[in-house]
């Protein structure tokens, strides 16, 4: 499903939140909204899902305006940072809940729940209570629940922010593989530049409620068009990947590396210098 915003404005409590925000995520793409805290990233997701109505502008799915369509009929699923599982239900019933709301027969919804738990590598966890799970396992359950109804778009609101680095890496890999497996359009809010660079087909950078740049990961890294973008990608960092045929890749990030031999390599960012690729 192609997902588009056109000229979105929003004011809450007399405070401007979003100003003329517009972008398109192509059908089946994985895109990220990147930016500092308070930039309007999560609010943008809530407008797409219908949880918050905009003051002006339009939300379009496959070119059709859905502003009057209620949240439960938009065929999108959203995974929040705080997970929001139901403590009174076991894991399987949490995952099956969206199908129950659609009045799917019990046997079928429990079958799907088991299938989705297997997809997130939690086979055999269906009878457990959510409070018995680790934070990473709870996040997997939230993903399984979001995917149970096979949404046309998956919205992720900083889904890995509460996890340690090892779990973050595991969840990034899992989310990327689920996106490819189910072929849905995915839009993730993050404040982590490396996360956006390696997972995304496209990045939308927001600052102070405005979209200030949109492009591929390579575009954002090599050709920042706004001081906030430059600042975000200007911190020292290293991304491991590989070079083949004069090109460096790490996830979906691809950059030319004509003078680097094939094999493992690292992309290095240091302040006040263009990123460079170094063989390992």
Order of helices and strands: EEEHEEEHHHEHEHEEHHEEEEE
The N- to C-terminal Cα distance equals: 40 Å
**What count of helical segments does DSSP give?**
8
Alpha-beta classification: alpha/beta
What is the overall pLDDT average? 94
What this model shows, in words?
With 280 residues, the chain is α/β, with parallel strands linked by helices. The chain contains eight helices and 15 strands. Strands 6-7-8-3-9-10 form a six-stranded mixed sheet, with helices on both faces. A five-stranded antiparallel sheet has the order 13-12-11-14-15. A hairpin with a 2-residue loop joins strand 1 and strand 2. Helix 2 crosses helix 3, helix 3 crosses helix 4 and helix 4 runs parallel beside helix 5. The model has no long low-confidence stretch (mean pLDDT 94).
Task: Write the SSE topology.
Layout (H helix, E strand, L loop, with lengths): L2 E10 L2 E11 L4 E5 L6 H9 L6 E6 L2 E2 L10 E4 L11 H11 L4 H14 L15 H14 L4 E5 L7 H18 L2 E6 L2 H7 L2 E6 L2 E6 L1 H6 L4 H7 L3 E8 L2 E4 L2 E4 L6 E7 L6 E4 L1
Parallel strand pairs: 3-8, 3-9, 6-7, 7-8
Antiparallel strand pairs: 1-2, 1-4, 4-5, 9-10, 11-12, 11-14, 12-13, 14-15
Helix pairs in contact: 2-3, 2-4, 3-4, 4-5
């Amino acid at each position: 499903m192609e997902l588009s915003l056109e000229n979105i404005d929003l004011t809450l409590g007399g405070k401007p939140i979003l100003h003329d925000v517009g972008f398109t995520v192509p059908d089946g793409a994985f895109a990220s909204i990147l930016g500092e805290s308070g930039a309007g990233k999560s609010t943008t997701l809530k407008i797409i899902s219908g949880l918050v109505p905009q003051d002006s502008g339009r939300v379009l799915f496959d070119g059709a305006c859905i502003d009057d369509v209620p949240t439960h009929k938009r065929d999108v699923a959203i995974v929040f940072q705080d997970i929001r599982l139901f403590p009174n239900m076991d894991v399987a019933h949490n995952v099956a809940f969206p199908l129950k709301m659609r009045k799917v027969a019990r046997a079928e919804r429990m079958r799907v729940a088991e299938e989705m738990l297997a997809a997130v590598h939690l086979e055999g966890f269906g009878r457990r209570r959510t409070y018995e799970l680790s934070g990473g396992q709870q996040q997997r359950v939230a993903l399984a629940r979001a995917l149970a109804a096979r949404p046309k778009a998956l919205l992720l609101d900083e889904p890995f922010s509460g996890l340690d680095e090892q779990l973050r890496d595991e969840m990034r890999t899992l989310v990327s593989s689920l996106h490819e497996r189910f072929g849905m359009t995915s839009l993730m809010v993050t404040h982590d530049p490396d996360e956006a660079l390696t997972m995304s087909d496209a990045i939308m950078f927001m600052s102070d409620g405005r979209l200030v740049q949109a492009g591929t990961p390579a575009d954002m890294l090599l050709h920042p068009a706004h001081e906030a973008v430059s600042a975000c990608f200007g911190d020292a960092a290293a991304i491991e990947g590989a070079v083949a045929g004069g090109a460096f890749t790490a996830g979906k990030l691809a950059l030319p590396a004509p003078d680097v031999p094939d094999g493992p390599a690292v992309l290095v960012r240091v302040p006040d210098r263009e990123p460079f690729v170094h063989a390992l």
